[in-house]
Amino acid sequence: MTTLHTPQRSDFSADDWATLERVAKRMGQKPEELLRPGIFGVQTHWPAWLEANFDQTLYGYRLHGVLPSLAKEAMHVAVSVTNRCNF
Question: What whole-number distance in Å separates Cα of residue 21 and Cα of residue 4?
């Protein structure tokens, strides 16, 4: 099984780091926080993909549909708490 290492700041080009900064800002985090192990930490290996995936998630999950955004967020939090997620 392939194991991805935890990325470090020095692993990224200036353009890739700028992409991580943009995504982190939109998430209300610092870019270094995205590098922690977890779903976003894995996606940071490919910053452009992380940004595209985040945009798709916002569009597909949060920005359209019948339910208000607040209701969707509340359900997301409830599932995360039930699953004991730390993020």
Answer: 21
